[in-house]
Design brief:
Rossmann fold, 3 domains, three-stranded parallel sheet, three-stranded antiparallel sheet, globular
């Protein structure tokens, strides 16, 4: 139960007979957190069937579970998800990128296969170029970050060798990205949609420079976002970049919430805040902004208390201060 707000699965298979908490009660609690959760109960006792459907279970499996029964349930779940997808107020079609930086660091070649990096250093140097796409990076900057404890005459050959290895990997990628040498430094020349990070930064830049809000692109990127940046790579130099991206993501979230408030589309606003909470449940300021919007949302004012309760449950499970 404590991990549920972080996982937010689409389906929960729940045994009705469990120690400490009855499966029916667990299902009710999970549905309070995620009201579109599909529940499938399992039990050896048929008398629970009626109770199971009182909590709007999608299906029910009797023990011992046979292969045919499981196939029937999976087929039904597929139908449920296809209907939900057609009815979803937001088309959460996450765009496909050759390079993924949000929530993981994955680089795929033209055949969509994960590339194998010759060294970890080459992989990290490429990540640094991605985070600074289009910016001139001097070789002295690279030496200071990646070979700080090595003498210059030994470090420079290491740099040249690493850059060469990165270039060899780039030849395998779609969209023809290139690292160009300019005087005493380098620049990554690549289309912005090579990576989710590059596309996100470009869209946020455009939204600042132009009065028009790129809604569709913003929605797709919003739902492709996940933390932490570069996954579990733990690059020390990426901390300030991650902080900047998080700030921009918060601005995007608030902008989308205001847009759907003005359009009086509560369900779409709910999808936005739920995805944001999955990344930044500790952002009390954003939670309060949402509560304030809901409190003034025509016809839905009473949902403010409901959301406050949901937020406090999530905050409590994360051992964070509750909203008053």
């Amino acid at each position: 139960m404590a991990a549920f707000p972080d996982l937010m699965p689409d389906v929960a298979f729940i045994d009705i007979e469990m120690p400490r908490m009855n499966g029916l009660e667990l299902a009710r609690r999970l549905l309070e957190v995620k009201d579109d959760l599909s529940i499938v109960f399992t039990t050896a006792y048929g008398q629970y069937a009626l109770d199971a459907f009182e909590v709007e279970a999608t299906d029910y499996l009797m023990k011992p579970i046979m292969k045919e029964d499981l196939q029937r349930v999976l087929k039904r779940l597929n139908r449920v998800f296809n209907i939900q997808k057609r009815q979803s107020p937001l088309l959460k079609r996450v765009p496909s990128f050759a390079v993924r930086c949000f929530g993981a660091f994955e680089v795929r070649d033209q055949q969509q296969q994960m590339v194998r990096w010759p060294t970890r250093k080459a992989e990290e140097v490429f990540a640094y170029f991605l985070a600074n796409q289009g910016r001139y990076i001097s070789k002295w900057e690279l030496l200071k970050i990646f070979w700080p404890e090595i003498e210059e005459e030994r470090a420079i050959p290491n740099l040249y060798n690493t850059i060469y290895r990165v270039k060899q990997v780039l030849k395998k990628l779609p969209l023809s990205p290139k690292i160009q040498k300019i005087n005493e430094g380098y620049i990554l020349e690549a289309q912005r949609n090579l990576s989710d990070l590059g596309e996100f930064l470009e869209v946020m830049k455009q939204s600042k420079e132009n009065s028009e809000f790129p809604l569709e692109a913003s929605i797709s990127l919003f739902f492709s976002y996940a933390t932490p940046l570069f996954g579990d790579k733990d690059y020390f130099w990426s901390l300030h970049i991650e902080k900047y991206v998080a700030q921009e993501y918060g601005k995007l979230c608030h902008k989308l919430l205001l847009h759907y408030y003005e359009q009086n589309q509560l369900q779409k606003g709910e999808e936005i805040i739920q995805h944001y909470m999955a990344q930044y449940i500790e952002d009390e300021d954003m939670l309060r902004k949402w509560l304030k919007l809901v409190a003034h949302w025509q016809g839905y004012e009473e949902k403010s208390d409901e959301y406050r309760h949901r937020f406090n449950e999530k905050l409590a499970s994360a051992e964070l201060p509750l909203l008053e």
